[in-house]
Write a structure and sequence with these properties.
Number of helices: 1
Structural class: mainly beta
Shape: globular
CATH topology: Beta-galactosidase, Chain A, domain 5
Number of domains: 1
Largest sheet: 9 strands, antiparallel
Distance between the termini: 25 Å
Oligomer: single chain
CATH architecture: Distorted Sandwich
Length: about 290
C-alpha cells in the first residue's frame, strides 16, 4: 500500500488496480471510503477498457471475437508507480501479452492521485501507443461509507445534484441497458434507502450537474464528487450494504440490442494512434 497525505487528508492506494482504499479526514478522524467488506470486496476499482457488462461478455473487432469480464481487466492488474511527490502519486498500466489476448490494442493507462486541501483529484490518461485506432471506455467506481457516523442510519442520507435534473433512468436487465428508459425524478435530491438499489445500479445519461453531493440530515459531514461533464453516471450499492457508489463514466454497459461490434458500442471512445485521452474527477470531503 502507498500513502499520500497533507494536513487535512490521508489517502492510501493499492498498486493492484491502482485502487483507492482509504480516504481519511485527519481533522475529523473520519474514514469516508467503504472498507471492502463481505457485501462487496472492493473500495474504488478503476473501470477500463470497458465500463459495465458486454453482451455475452464478448465483442468483435476486425472479424475476431474477444472476451472481457464486466468492468474490464484494469482492476485486477498490477500498476507500476512512475511518479511520487508531495501529495501526489502516479501509476501506470501498459499493455502486455496477457491483455492483448482479449484486448488487441497497445496503450499506456496512467492514473494520478493528487491532494489539495480537503480534496482528492483523480486523473485518468489513456495514450494510444499502437498504430491503429483504439476503442475503449474508462470510469470510476468509488464506494463511500453510509452512514459516515455510526450513530446515523442509511436513510438519514441523501444525494443532491448541483443542478436541477429532469433525467430518465436506464434500467439494467441482467447487466445490460434496457432499450426503454424509465421516468425517475424531476428534482435535485434523491433520498437514500436500501431499497433504492435492489434491482441494480441507477444509470443516467447526459446529466446537467457538475457535482453530486452526499449529505446527511443529521450533521454537516458529507462529500461532493465533481464529475466534470461525464456522459454517463451510475449510482449503486450492494444489497443491504452500508455504502454508496457515485460513478462518473466515459462509457456504459452494452444495450440489450447490442450488435457486439466494438465500433458500434454506445459511449465507446475512439483514440487515434499517438493521441491521449484525459479525464479528471475529484472528491471534496467535509
Amino acid at each position: 500500500m502507498l500513502r499520500i497525505e497533507n494536513d487535512n487528508l490521508r489517502v492510501d492506494i493499492n498498486p493492484m488496480g491502482a485502487e483507492l482504499i482509504s480516504l481519511y479526514n485527519k481533522l475529523f478522524r473520519l474514514e469516508y471510503l467503504w472498507q471492502a467488506g463481505k457485501e462487496w470486496s472492493k473500495s474504488s476499482p478503476v473501470l477500463f477498457p470497458i465500463v459495465g457488462q458486454l453482451k455475452e461478455n464478448s465483442y468483435t473487432y476486425n472479424g475476431n471475437e474477444y472476451t472481457i469480464a464486466r468492468h474490464g481487466f484494469a482492476r485486477e492488474k498490477l500498476f507500476n508507480l512512475i511518479e511520487e511527490g508531495a501529495g501526489k502519486l502516479v501509476f501506470r498500466l501498459k499493455d502486455d501479452e496477457d491483455t492483448r489476448k482479449n484486448y488487441p490494442f497497445q496503450f499506456h493507462f496512467d492514473i494520478s492521485y493528487t491532494l489539495k486541501g480537503n480534496e482528492l483529484n483523480v486523473e485518468y490518461n489513456v495514450f494510444n501507443s499502437g498504430k491503429d485506432t483504439m476503442y475503449f471506455s474508462v470510469g470510476a467506481h468509488p464506494a463511500f461509507r453510509v452512514p459516515l457516523d455510526l450513530r446515523d442510519h442509511y436513510d438519514d442520507y441523501y444525494i443532491e445534484f448541483s443542478d436541477e435534473e429532469n433525467s430518465s433512468l436506464w434500467p439494467l436487465k441482467e447487466g445490460l441497458i434496457s432499450d426503454v428508459p424509465a421516468s425517475f425524478f424531476t428534482s435535485k435530491r434523491i433520498p437514500l434507502s436500501k431499497a433504492l438499489f435492489e434491482s441494480d445500479a441507477l444509470v443516467f445519461k447526459n446529466i446537467r450537474s457538475e457535482c453530486i453531493h452526499l449529505r446527511s440530515n443529521q450533521h454537516d459531514h458529507g462529500l461532493s464528487v465533481k464529475v466534470n461533464q461525464c456522459p454517463f453516471l451510475g449510482l449503486w450499492a450492494a444489497k443491504g450494504a452500508n455504502f454508496l457508489c457515485i460513478e462518473p463514466w466515459h462509457g456504459i454497459a452494452d444495450s440489450v440490442h447490442s450488435t457486439g461490434k466494438i465500433e458500434e458500442k454506445e459511449g465507446i471512445i475512439l483514440l487515434k494512434a499517438g493521441e491521449n485521452f484525459s479525464y479528471v474527477w475529484s472528491v471534496r470531503v467535509t
